[in-house]
Design goal:
alpha+beta, about 15% strand, 3 strands, 50s Ribosomal Protein L17, Chain: A, about 120 residues, 3-stranded antiparallel sheet
Amino acid sequence: MVTSLLEQERIETTEAKAKEIRGFTDRMITLGKEGTLPARRRALGFLRSKAVVSKLFDDVAARFKDRPGGYTRIIKTRRRIGDAAEMVAIELVTRQDTTAQKKSAASQAQSSPAAESTSS
């Protein structure tokens, strides 16, 4: 599940499973921030996907380089119909797609006042 979380950056699961994988995910991101070859090998031994380890060390660790901890957030979503288990979404605090959306929204906000002032 940690591999899926680092690959997708947001997954939906039960609350108990999310609380359990939160610590493992934080440890993997800490290894990514370390950036050494032994840290990469330890992460590869746990995650077992070269693509995810590469993403962890290149992309995810760079986003969290100034953050001392707390890389994931748990958001309660619903109750599962079959057994009424509490479902939650666990996600990385700074996700790649939300960062891209904020940048595009900021660029649109900067360009729209300029367009209004020239048309007036």
